[in-house]
Q: What sequence folds into this?
């Protein structure tokens, strides 16, 4: 006789009280780390991080991603210098032209600071994981890659490692042909994003203030807005 | 907090920005300089063995300084906003992670 599945409980649901659980703590204390120790991360840990990415959910289980791990200082330098060079070129070429619409000040000042070498691109991290999307992915390969990336970031954080998303490498992959050639990027892959991994200096993990956002809540025939 | 009218591209000034503001409790601050080291916008400096925000600052309210401060001396009190590009809408008060809210 078939078992009544309604009565099967895989795991008791934890009541929301007392304290944060381990997973929540990792999520809530994760910080973007931009100051790293001069010490390589063991290969086993990077492989554990990649496993977390491999088991991420994706639309239609298409898994539209490709990861490239860069731990070679020469290759890291190629990425860093190409990004700096491209930023310098963009600023030089744009001159004082008035943009057709406002640019967000954060990436704009980021680009100026990178060009002037006041702000690092890869922050001296010993390992960088590049995420390429398979453009044939369903619905939004970008989203799927983001989910895989966040899985890896949280796994890394839980292992005591610091991580930081770096999107500025897009500038290098877009404008420096040598970079694209070096990594042999071709259809169906496109560079999407990257993140750094390394041992942080100091203890950067902690809970901080953040904005609260309006959340609309429909229940019992009425609508509430909570923050 | 009510709904804010979204910006109009033509009538906004690109340079119109409101940077974040943090408060530093100088009784707790030991001048260790960790906050200045992790600040990605270089908006913190150490003066007379106490951390302070630079003038002008470019704080983006990331709170890396607050997270790394061992003395718990830093609090974010104002978030940045960039009305020329992006205006914060439908936000409430600042808050740390909340259990049972």
A:
């Amino acid at each position: 006789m078939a078992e009544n599945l309604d009565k099967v409980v895989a795991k008791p649901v934890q009541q929301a009280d007392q304290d944060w659980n381990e997973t929540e703590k990792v999520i809530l204390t994760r910080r973007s780390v931009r100051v790293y120790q001069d010490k390589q991360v063991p290969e086993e840990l990077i492989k554990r991080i990649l496993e977390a990415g491999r088991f991420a959910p994706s639309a239609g289980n298409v898994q539209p991603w490709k990861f490239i791990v860069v731990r070679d200082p020469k290759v890291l330098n190629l990425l860093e210098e190409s990004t700096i060079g491209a930023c310098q070129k963009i600023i030089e070429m744009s001159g004082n032209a008035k943009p057709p619409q406002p640019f967000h000040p954060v990436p704009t000042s980021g680009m100026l600071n990178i060009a002037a070498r006041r702000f690092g691109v890869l922050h001296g991290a010993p390992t960088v994981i590049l995420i390429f999307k398979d453009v044939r992915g369903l619905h939004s390969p970008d989203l799927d890659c983001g989910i895989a990336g966040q899985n890896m970031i949280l796994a890394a954080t839980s292992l005591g490692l610091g991580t930081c998303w770096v999107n500025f490498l897009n500038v290098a992959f877009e404008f420096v042909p040598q970079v694209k050639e070096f990594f042999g990027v071709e259809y169906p892959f496109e560079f999407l994003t990257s993140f750094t991994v390394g041992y942080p200096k100091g203890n950067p993990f902690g809970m901080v203030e953040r904005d609260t956002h309006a959340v609309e809540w429909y229940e019992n025939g009425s609508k509430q807005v909570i923050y | 907090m009510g709904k804010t009218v979204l910006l109009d591209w033509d009538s906004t000034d690109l340079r119109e920005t409101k940077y974040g503001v943090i408060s530093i409790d100088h009784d707790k601050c030991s001048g260790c300089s960790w906050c200045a080291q992790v600040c990605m916008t270089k908006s913190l400096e150490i003066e007379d063995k106490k951390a302070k925000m630079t003038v002008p600052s470019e704080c983006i309210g990331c709170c890396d300084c607050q997270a790394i401060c061992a003395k718990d001396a830093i609090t974010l009190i104002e978030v940045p906003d960039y009305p020329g590009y992006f205006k914060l809408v439908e936000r409430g008060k600042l808050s740390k992670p909340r259990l049972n809210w």
Observations:
- The CA atoms of residues 4 and 89 of chain B lie 6 Å apart.
- Chain B touches chain A at residues 1, 9, 12, 14, 17, 34, 37-38, 40-42, 58, 60, 62-64, 66-68, 70, 75-76, 79, 82, 84-86, 88, 90-97, 99-100 (CB under 8 Å).
